[in-house]
Structures are given as C-alpha cells and as structure tokens.
Design a protein that fits this description.
This protein is mainly β. It has 4 domains: 42 residues, no CATH class; 165 residues, no CATH class; 131 residues, Immunoglobulin-like; 121 residues, Macroglobulin (MG2) domain (Immunoglobulin-like), CATH 2.60.40. The protein is built from 6 helices and 31 strands.
Length: 474
C-alpha cells in the first residue's frame, strides 16, 4: 500500500507546480492520502488535441475523442473592438462541450495561459487554473495598468480558482488593455468531477490566437478641409498611418510575423476596416479601389466595399485568409522576424468596375461564399438563377454543415429590393430565383446566421458574419 501511495504521490506532484503543491500540502495528511487514492482511480485514458486559430474573436475549436465523446472547446473575446475611454463589459469565455449533443461538460478545470502577440519570448499576462462547476468559465476582465489580480476562492484539491455559480471569475489588471493579438493556451486539467484529473501528457491542449480590434482615428486634410477617418485593425495594433493628398493614397502598417511554418500551422485571418466620410467625395464617390499588401494587389474576395451600412461613411474591408497570406509570404518580399510588418495601401481607382462578384468572404473571415448566375449577367425583368456554395474559408474545404442565411439585394441608392430570410443551404449549397427590376449595379449581401453540422444536434452561431459583393444586371 505504501509503495502504491508513493507512486501515486509522485504522479500527483507532476500534475501541479511547486507553488500549488506547497499550498496543497498544508492540508491534513489523511485527507491528502485519501485524495491521492481518488486521483489514481479517476485518471483518464489518452486524449490529445492541439488546435490553432489566429486573428479571430471567437471560434469552436475542432472536436476530439474523450472516452465515448467528442469534446470541442468554444473560446470568445468580448468586445471584438476595444474603444479607449469607454466602460465596456470585457470578458474571455471558455466552454468545453460534447460536440454531438452540445451538452456542456461540467466540472471542467482549465489551465489558461494568456500572452500578448506571437513571440515565444513574451511573458504571460495570465497563467492560472480555473474550475467551473457548470463547465462554462467567464473571466470578467477590468483592464487597467498595474499588477494583475484575480479574485475568488481556490479549490483545496486542485488549487484552482472556483468560478461563482454563474461561471464567473473577476480579473483586474493589464489584460485586454488594448487591441492586438492574444495567444490563449488552454489545457483541460480535469472534467466531469472535481476529483477527475488528466495525466499531464494526456491533457487536451488547445492554442488559439484571438484578436481584439485596435481603433485608430485620424483627421486627414484635402484641399484645406479636414475629414475624420477611422481605421480598425482586427489583428494587431496600427502604426505609421499616412495620407498622401497628391494621389489620394492612404497607407499604414501592422506588426506581423511572416514565418511561413507558423502561418501554415494556424488558421490565420487578417481583417482591416477603413471608414472614410462620404462627404470626402474625391475618395468616396467610387466603389472601386487599388489596394495592396506589401506591394501585392488585393483583389476579388479579399477587398469588400460597403457603401450602405453607415449613413455617413464608406467602409472598405481587407479580408486576408491563410492562403492569401501564405502566397504573400512565399513571394519572397517578406521575411520572418520580430520586426516584420504587414504594409497596406489604398487609393480610389476611378470609374466603377463593371463586373459581377463571384467569390465573397464574410467579415469574420470564417466563411466563403461563391456565386454562379444563370444567365450571366442577369437580365432586368427576367428571372435569374443564383447558385450559392458556402464553404470554410479557413481550410478551403466543405463545412459539412447546413447553413442558415439571409440574402439581401440593394440598388445603387441603398434601397433594399430583395430580402429573403432564414434560408438554408443544405450541405452548403443553395439555389435562389431572383428578378431585378432594371439594369444597373446592385449590392448583394449574404448574412450567415448559423451552422448545423452533420450528425450533430446543436446549432453553431460562432461564425456569424456578412459577405458583400456586386452584381451587374443588363
């Protein structure tokens, strides 16, 4: 018996750090030995999961087997955009759930390490254990300068901070203090019971690089008139913003690690959003632009123009998927290193391009929508058939899901002429019959509401977003 307890004690010491162990050993010897016996009984079998994402604000990480279940992890940062000086309800949410039933896995203990950026040399802002009896962990964050303080009671067995009945733990300090990319490393320490613990080598591991938008406001001058512009980077902080009034070129830079191996190993998405006032007509009286990233043109689905969401501003979106970024990295004009940047330029192109969009991305970057018109182009007053194929933009593969979506068509003045809601693309495919009242250039918007995966009962709303493009009608 003593040999068995010695072995179990050795195994237990490998599960927790020295600080946790010192606190734990304060407890009575008999309680300690009894807990160790329970621990040895409930250690789980092998379960290994490693998943990456980069540049998103929320996601369901791919499921993996745990016993007779498929477990997936939902991670979310809120708000997706931080605004300096505003009191915002800021939090990071974690939920481990059965991917087949959508049932939350209760009594989950999370080991969470959060660092800013992608450098391996970065010191963690947070590194601690958290236990949620109901399985849903919400780190309520009050960002401020100074030392990081975590409020809550610790479980005597795991030394983990125990969430309140609503699943919440309060944190004050320099976490989500500003926009940029945050690395979340999550290990599942235990599930189902407060005494069920994984062996360290078997603990499910998840890595997610989630972004908080950085808002940059700048007044630019043209012909002695000031115009208020807003630039939002959903990936990392903006610097070196410039405006050249001679050729109407806007440019800026953003930190980016161009290491090709890192890019290929992650689901990366870069989203930049530039808002220019509509009364700056020399810039905004077009929906066609020359845009570049590191000197390479940004075309098609990677540049979305939105003239209607804002009454006072034209919005231009850069939407760069992993494949786009890999191509840029392999062109040889970028190198890996901590001082690398992604450089953007934008300028009006002149007369509107007379072409129909065939390939769109949602503004969240997770969904790709391809469009096929019959006839092409559609003819005013006659019924046209639109085939939509909705796929996973992060992996360039099928979603293996039914997609609930809305379809909206707007004319050149922003008036809605067609609006269809709660449509379903079965296994990502849908056909819609549409009639346009007259010839001209129309905006098409596909709002992705939710996904229902094959063989799974629950509805996934984590990939909501809107894809925008144009259709020319003859």
């Amino acid at each position: 018996m003593n040999d068995s307890l010695d072995t179990c004690t050795s195994n237990f010491k490998s599960l927790i750090d020295k600080h946790s162990l010192q606190k734990f050993l304060i407890f009575h010897k008999n309680v300690f030995l009894a807990s160790l016996v329970i621990l040895c009984i409930f250690v789980f079998p092998n379960f290994k999961q490693l998943a990456f994402s980069d540049g998103l604000t929320a996601e369901n990480l791919p499921p993996a087997s745990v016993g007779n279940r498929q477990a997936s992890l939902f991670v979310k940062i809120n708000p997706p955009v931080l605004v300096s000086g505003q009191d915002q309800d800021t939090y990071a949410l974690f939920r481990l759930f059965d991917a087949n039933t959508n049932q939350t896995i209760e009594h989950t203990t999370y080991q969470i390490t959060i660092t800013k950026g992608t450098s391996p040399d970065q010191r963690p802002v947070l590194n601690d254990f958290f236990h949620a009896h109901n399985g849903v962990l919400k780190l309520k964050i009050e960002p401020r300068q100074g030392e990081l303080t975590v409020y809550g009671d610790r479980d005597p067995f795991q030394n983990a901070l125990v969430a309140d009945p609503g699943g919440e733990v309060l944190i004050r300090g320099p976490l989500l203090l500003d926009g940029g990319l945050y690395h979340f490393h999550i290990e599942i320490f235990g599930i189902d019971n407060d005494r069920n613990i994984f062996k360290p080598e078997d603990a499910p591991k998840f890595d997610s690089y989630l972004s908080v938008g950085d808002v940059f406001k700048e007044n630019i001058t043209f012909n002695n008139t000031l115009y208020n512009t807003t630039l939002i980077s959903y990936y990392d902080k903006i610097h070196d913003f410039k405006f050249n009034p001679t050729n109407l070129v806007v440019s800026w830079e953003m930190p980016f690690d161009w290491n090709v191996s890192r890019i290929k190993a992650a689901n990366i998405f870069v989203h930049e959003e530039f808002k220019v006032p509509k009364n700056f007509t020399q810039f905004s009286n077009t929906t066609s632009f020359n845009a570049t990233v590191n000197g390479q043109p940004v075309l098609g689905r990677s540049l979305a123009i939105d003239p209607f969401s804002s009454e006072n501003a034209l919005i231009i979106h850069y939407l760069l998927t992993k494949n786009d970024i890999v191509k840029l990295a392999e062109m040889g004009n970028v190198t890996s290193g901590s001082n690398n940047t992604m450089k953007f330029t934008l300028m009006p192109k002149g007369p509107e391009a007379r072409e129909t969009s065939t390939d769109l991305l949602t503004d969240t970057g997770g969904i790709r929508v391809t469009l096929l018109w019959t006839p092409n182009p559609p003819v005013a007053g006659s019924e046209a058939k639109l085939l939509l194929n909705i796929t996973d933009a992060l992996t360039d593969s099928s979603l293996r899901a039914d997609v609930n979506y809305n379809l909206t068509i707007l004319d050149g003045s922003g008036k809605v002429i067609i609006n269809k809601e709660n449509l379903v693309a079965v296994n990502g495919t849908s056909i819609q019959n549409l009639t346009f009242p007259e010839s001209g250039r129309y905006q098409i918007e596909v709002f992705v509401n939710s996904l229902k995966y094959e063989g799974q009962a629950f509805i996934d709303t984590s990939r909501k977003g809107v894809a925008r493009g144009f259709v020319i009608v003859s």
